[in-house]
Amino acid sequence: MQYIDDSLEGKKILITGGAGFIGSNLALYFQKYHKAEVVIFDSFRSEKTFSNGHFKSLGHFKNLLDFKGEVIVGDITSKEDLERLESFNFDYIFHQAAISDTTVMNQEAVLRANVNAYKDLLDLCVRSNARMIYASSAGVYGNSHAPNSIGDGEIPENVYGFSKLMMDNLTQKYLQRYPELKIVGLRYFNVYGENEVHKGKTASMILQLSLQALRQKKVRLFKMGEQKRDFVYIQDVVQANVKAMESKKSGVYNVGSGNARSFNAIVACLKMDLGEFAVEYIDNPYTFFQTHTEANIVLTKEFLGYTPRFSLEVGVKNYLPSIKAIHASGVWSEIVQE
Ligand SMILES: NC(=O)c1ccc[n+]([C@@H]2O[C@H](COP(=O)([O-])OP(=O)(O)OC[C@H]3O[C@@H](n4cnc5c(N)ncnc54)[C@H](O)[C@@H]3O)[C@@H](O)[C@H]2O)c1
């Protein structure tokens, strides 16, 4: 029988962006392991798209088929929609809602959704004394030298990374103004895992390459596949969020595996399970492309007690059965270009 922790009994948890990849994993984690009231606030997918053709909000009801809590449809950029959250008096807010697509160039839209809305949610925390745990990003480091450390080389290369840096700066201002407030920002690196298929072309490279291999027996990599990223499995990201609930020290922390791995390394992991397939190396069309990211997680370990449990090999092995199910169902068609 599943062990249920009752330490959060009677507590109210808000997850903004709870219909998305990381938010839905958090919601389902709390439902499975804790007695707490979980409320999701998300704008869900509409038919609206950005000029890059991607959906304006990526949340999908299929991520929440097993969710038993309350779902509120709303836009974090609408003060009227946010008012619906006022009467709950949340104990914890996990703020995941954002324009998560790093290729959106509309600066006004990205900053409004990612920065202004965060300020409104911080004000809600001040009023209700909720603890805020929010999603920042490795995007704040742009193409700075790795390993990436808090307070060093924070030079974002796109408006998405800039928006997350502005959230982190705002956090420091609020902590100075309201010393009793508890805020933890988590700079996620490259997250992969269950419930990301709805992100389409912005889903992780682990999913994209797996589906290419399954579908076409061939994957495409930018020359020569040696660019490195810190790939972190969703279960480690959930762990970091849960640890942040008890952190005595507010602040901003890196959340990665602590190791940089290449795209060729993903291919090697996939071949262990899927067998042989071809690799085609193509020219990289992007003028901006990170060549090496790697989370320095010394402070995350010390102050949050976070210990990543999934190497790339273990994470991919754990994830592949779900990817094979996605492939069998045909939902992959948005991701794999034929
Ligand atoms: N996945 C990663 O690798 C990664 C890395 C770094 C940071 N992050 C951050 O983590 C958070 C979650 O990312 P994700 O990968 O789960 O992305 P996601 O797009 O799957 O989730 C974001 C959710 O926010 C919702 N949303 C978007 N705009 C909204 C609005 N105006 N009002 C209400 N809801 C809105 C979407 O519908 C979606 O469900 C984001 O803040 C993202 O920037 C993710």
Automatic annotation (TrEMBL):
Residues 13-256 form the NAD-dependent epimerase/dehydratase domain. Coiled coil: none annotated. Pfam families: Epimerase. Its EC number is 5.1.3.20. GO terms for molecular function: ADP-glyceromanno-heptose 6-epimerase activity. InterPro entries: Epimerase_deHydtase, Heptose_epim, NAD(P)-bd_dom_sf. This is ADP-glyceromanno-heptose 6-epimerase. The gene is rfaD.
